[in-house]
Specification:
Blueprint: E1 8-12, H1 17-28, E2 32-39, H2 60-73, E3 77-81, H3 83-99, H4 106-125, E4 130-132, E5 137-141, E6 147-151, H5 168-172, E7 174-175, H6 183-192, H7 214-222, E8 229-232, E9 238-242, E10 265-270, E11 275-279, E12 285-296, E13 304-310, E14 318-324, E15 330-339, E16 346-351, E17 354-364
Helix pairs in contact: 1-2, 1-6, 3-4
């Protein structure tokens, strides 16, 4: 590589195979690569069962793995402590949302407020030209001079849903080295290079709830016995009682403790009234949704956008019409009714492979 193309790049290293391969590839391309891991949560209070490890990211074991990979490929490595900021910007929001009767997505908030804000700022302090991550997503510069965010080439691993909040300035300073690869290719590259994390499993749980017990975590944060109340149907008929609205999410069927001739699902959570609203499966259907904090990767042309949208990560995109409002909100109408529109989750707008933007689901239509 010619010297003029050599860049200083900070790579966010989670200790997993993806960011490890991304770091190795950037180093092989001749760049000056600096590895950084984020310390965002104190795991001292969590002990995995003997002989087991939590399937999460950002643990001390993961940071140790990242450090060893950095040593193996020959790049400097640092740990930045964002515990205080992560608590304020991600965890407190997560807890608040549940106690408002919503179901949050902390991974999007982490990308928005920590990784592509605080860590990107840290990269700039180090004089880096770019921040690189192991996300399966693509970033291209169009003929219009603007940066466009695209799905990762591997449909099974595409993570563009979690990145819809990225701005033009952030995209201009971000690299996704794995965007054109499949997971199988990444593992093969790791094995070929003898990276010690080549066969490491993928993180499955939220980093600060490593045992996946949300109820325990929320009650430790706010106390037990809060938000208990009635389970009702759409007409207000009382069908039972519950131990806390934060224990329920739209679409949930198990754990209701109600004897009923037909299957019942959670169709709404009213935290203010401390009510969990249930109904048959057809009551989960919605013709659309309202969204707040709507942001656009590239500003839309006009007040109406024809797109496809995902209302949760593993949801297949569905055709929709987005009515853009001046206050930063939007009204989204589906072509066909969709199930389980969940307040607090992200709705992300696509056109083919391109991420147009997204927002946070406020309610259903």
């Amino acid at each position: 590589m010619a010297e003029k193309h050599r860049q200083r790049i900070v790579i966010a290293m989670s200790g997993g195979v993806d960011s490890s391969v991304a770091a190795a590839l950037l180093k092989e391309e001749g760049h000056e690569v600096i590895g950084i891991s984020m310390q965002v949560w104190d795991y001292a209070n969590f002990a995995a069962p003997e002989g087991e490890k939590f399937d999460t990211c950002c643990s001390l074991d993961d940071i140790h793995d990242a450090r060893r990979v950095a040593e193996q490929i020959g790049i400097p490595f640092y740990v930045v402590n964002f515990e205080e900021e992560f608590r304020r910007l991600v965890i407190d929001d997560f807890v608040d949302e549940y106690f408002r009767g919503r179901t949050p997505n902390p991974c999007v908030r982490c990308n928005q407020r920590v990784k592509f804000e605080l860590l990107l700022h840290k990269a700039r302090e180090l004089g880096a030209d770019f921040l690189a991550t192991g996300h399966y997503a693509r970033r291209v510069r169009g003929e219009d001079g603007l940066y466009h965010l695209l799905r990762g080439l591997d449909p099974a691993k595409d993570q563009s849903y979690f990145l819809f909040t990225l701005t033009q300035d952030q995209l201009a300073r971000t690299l996704f080295p794995l965007g054109e690869m499949t997971k199988e290719q990444v593992r093969r590259l790791a094995a070929e290079r003898g990276l010690r994390v080549a066969e490491k499993g993928e993180s499955q749980e939220i980093c600060f709830v490593p045992d996946d017990d949300y109820v325990r975590f929320l009650e430790e944060e706010r106390g037990t016995g809060l938000m208990a109340g009635e389970i009702v149907d759409r007409k207000g008929n009382v069908l039972g009682r519950h131990g806390g609205t934060y224990r329920y999410t739209v679409g949930q069927r198990r754990g209701l403790g109600i004897a009923h001739p037909t299957p019942l699902y959670v169709v709404g959570v009213d935290a203010e009234r401390r009510q969990v609203i249930v109904g048959p499966a057809e009551e989960l259907l919605a013709t659309g949704l309202t969204a707040t904090e709507v942001t656009w990767v590239v500003p839309p042309q006009g007040q109406t956008v024809e797109a496809s949208c995902k209302i949760r990560y593993r949801h297949q995109p569905v055709p929709c019409t987005v009515a853009v409002r001046a206050d930063g909100s939007a009204e989204v109408r589906f072509r066909q009714p969709e199930k389980s529109v969940t307040p607090g989750q992200a709705v992300v707008f696509y056109r083919d492979d391109e991420v147009l933007g997204g927002g946070w689901i406020e309610g259903r239509l």
